[in-house]
Amino acid sequence: MENKKPPALADAFLEWYCSKEFIDEVQGDLHEWFHHRAKKQGYRKARLMYFLDVIRFLRSYRVKSIDELSQNSNHIAMLRNYLTTSWRSLIKNKAFSIINILGLAVGMSSFLLISLYVTHERSYDQFHENGENVYRLKLSRYNDGVLSTEWAAGCSAIGSALNDNFPEVIDYVRMTPSNAVVSYGDKVFREENAYYASESFFEHFTIPLIEGVDSSVLVKPYTAAISETTAKKYFGDDQAVGKTLRHNGTRDFEITGVFKNVPTNSHFNMDMLFSFETFVDIVGDDVYTAWDWDGFYNYIVLADGTDPKTFESKIPDFIQKERGEQLTEQNHMIEFELQPVTDIHLTSDYMMEFKPNGDGEATNFLFIISIFIIAIAWVNYINLATAKSMERSREVGIRKVMGSMRSQLIRQFLVESFLLNILALTLSVAVVFLMLPYFNQLSGRELAVDFTSLEFWLTLGVLLLTGAMFSGLYPAFVLSGFKPVAILKGKFINSSKGNYLRKGLVVFQFLASLVLMVGTLTVFQQLRYMRNEDLGVKIDQTLVIQGPNVTDSLYDDRLNTFKQTLTSFAEIRSITASTAVPGTQPPWNAGGIRLLEQDQTEAQQYRVVGADHDFVDAYDLDLLAGRKFDKERVNDQSTVLMNESATELMGFESIDEALNRDIFFWGDTFRIVGVLKDYHQESLKKSFEPLIFRLIPNASNFYSVSISTNDIPYLIEKIEDEWKAEFPGNPFDFFFLDDHYDQQYKSEIQFGKVFGLFAGLAIFIACLGLFGLASYMTAQRTKEIGVRKILGASLASVLSLLSKDFVRLILVSILFAIPVSWFVMDDWLSGFANQINLSWWIFTAPSILILVIALGTVALQTIRAGISNPVDSLRHE
Amino acid sequence: MKGTYLGEFEELVLLTVAVLNGEAYGISIAKVIEEEAERAVTISTIHNVLYRLEKKGFVKSRLGGATAERGGRNKRLFSITATGHAALNQSNKLRNRLWNLMPELKF
């Protein structure tokens, strides 16, 4: 039978929200309308429409006011009551509340700071509108089946070749760095972030042009687009488009566009882009199809809905078809991988990255730490709340006798935990706001709190909700579960279950703190080891001048004069010109190198350093066999030096075997005249790389000046004068080699500091909890202590009695923490080619420290109880 | 003046209130509009318009006339005020004036 009444559910909802003032006319009209409609369209339809109408009537002026609500229902009134009693209980137990709020606030601040950091790290390159379809092609090269090099910037041909042969590739962007000194009139700057880029750059990367048109800015040869800041640097407030910049003193570029500065959360950073056609014009159009010429960033744009994995799996066959013959001939293999542009920052660390990328693993690690810290803070609340249960039990008993339901008590305790969490959250937002500048310094990022973002408030909301529920639910259930009769009779037995939980939680807190401490210690030990280890190369007291880009035909003479003048200074030990300096991977990578008599299938890739005669001495490198480059010998330009790793790669059994052998290097023959001991060209994170040293007396990339003076500014001034005299038109840019070398450890240092900070905070929170727990336990046993003292117990025995339980807990956490931290840190260390051993004291020192801190915390409470006069504690019953 | 301005639907409802002469409430108005203007209406819209008109002083209301079909709930019965009548009149005059000004158009 058809239901001829309006739906009851909708009616109930209407009655619930609608104010008394309106309910008559609204419900009456709706009922009448329902019957009217039912006659016309049938009951089913009418019932459905009724729901809609009820919702349509939901307007603010019809909704009941708070007062009207609390008249009709108990809930609002009760909520008021809960808030009042919660507030009273917070005020009554000031010390407990402060410990709780402080602990929670510290935990929440840590969590918020870290999530800001993590969000930032994950936000890289999200601003590209078509970002999900843009992929960079990473190139791996294998020689003889063994992986030899992995490139962020691979060979030149691949991007366009894929674009030509696969319909799913819509377009490609090709880029290559341009080391440039750029001038406009008398303004001369070295541009580190300058690249040649193909014309569709602005089409696929969302970097808006302020002036110029996407499709035409980089089309013609000798045109350039520059960033806003760069434009300001050269032209002030004048219009940049149409002006001409001079590149390395020889080529003129017309500016056709100005683009907005590239956001910092991008994997690349460019101040200046030259049209790729210019590069082609300079080097010839072979570059379009060069498969063996690396150093080109290739981005491809896939059609909407193309599965990158499927597409990626088609590349090997294509390579085989296109290049198979040549590759087999050389016993070489190339492999391409699609890197989603949004993933590059956290996953990519290969040769020629635009800038040092982030570390995805460390970021995840940090995120886990933040969860640990907040968990420790929540655990504090659970612990203290349940520990306090005896005190609250009377309140619960009375409430129950007066007729409180269990659900009401649960609600009351939940409200209490909400209140506490809200207070802590407010405090922590303030803390985050104040601490952000310091945290930015520590993390090397520019983080900001965006109060307008939904995400931020959502995080806060989730934090509050989870926190209040997670920490409040258990105590609420425990506290509300007491039997009133038993309590009021005075029989209160602490449940053993609750005890176990409490102990378990304390163990967890200290376990987490300990792991963090061991972690911090390991990171810093590893850092100390890496920075103090003998590098095999002299990097202190060395000033490196960036070589001149603007040169003329007299360059060799100028360089010689410059070197001679500088060596004549008493403060200067030596000066050497080279194409690479320690602290960075040598940018010159050469493949196809083999012994003259070897087949080309045995060729390998080496990193090549071009250097003058003084390089070995200036850098204090150890010569193991043979000789150095010799100024007296005219033919030395066809000789090379090698390091040990290179001789190994070439297949020599011993160092001496390598001497006087001829190698084939890009069509020429070179004789090996000396072997150098392996030294750390790059940080100790990496193992030794095979290096070949070519004699290039007029190398112009770096001049390394070894100095010994106390007045460095004066010396620099003197050098600069000489520089200006010999190399006019070139900016004088220099750096200290030890600083430069240390840059490689920047991320580890940051990681260590951040780790240390949060380890400290975790311990702080855990100790706060312990402090609260100890003070409570001691208070519980005041009478017992009094009796014991009367019977003759000494202070020491009272102390040991009270601390015994805690010490046992901490010992248990130490027992668990050692294997956990060993496992984690061993894994972390495995990322380093040169690593420290995890010696026993890395575990024992923090364990002892934590034991001492914990005992101190407990003692603070127990000593007071121990020395108090037993009469006081026993007098009042 | 914004306060006395009559929207198209407002005017329609106000006219209906005048037509129903004291018997006007949500449903009766809705029925008239449905039949005369042949347009679909939602009750909540009519209520909202009525409150707005009441606020402007064009109609006044009282409670009464509960029936069984309404679940014993009272109606809010609306009747037009002098100001409301004047507003209708004014808008009607304006229309007529403009209508008269219109040149003879052939379609």
Any overview of this molecule?
The complex is a heterodimer of chains A (877) and B (107). Chain A has 877 residues and is an alpha+beta fold. Helix content of chain A is 53%, strand content 17%. In chain A, helix 4 packs across helix 5 and helix 14 (389-401) packs across helix 16 (454-480). The radius of gyration of chain A is 37 Å and the shape is globular. Chain B is mainly α. In chain B, strands 1-2 form a two-stranded antiparallel sheet. In chain B, helix 1 packs across helix 3 and helix 2 packs across helix 3. Chain B is elongated, with a radius of gyration of 16 Å. The model of chain B has no long low-confidence stretch (mean pLDDT 85). The chains are: A alpha+beta (877), B mainly alpha (107).
Number of strands of chain B: 2
**CA-CA gap between termini of chain A:** 73 Å
Shape of chain B: elongated
- Could you say which structural class the secondary elements and strand pairing of chain B correspond to? mainly alpha
Helix content of chain A: 40-55%
How many strands appear in the DSSP assignment of chain A?
Answer: 25
- The number of helical segments of chain A is 29
- Spatial order of the strands forming the largest sheet of chain B: 1-2
Major sheet description of chain A: 14 strands, mixed
Can you give the mean pLDDT of chain A?
86
Q: What about the largest sheet of chain B?
A: 2 strands, antiparallel
Q: What is the residue-averaged pLDDT of chain B?
A: 85
Number of helices of chain B: 4
Percent of residues in β-strands of chain B: 5-15%
Helical percent range of chain B? 55-70%
Quaternary assembly: heterodimer
Distance between the termini of chain B: 36 Å
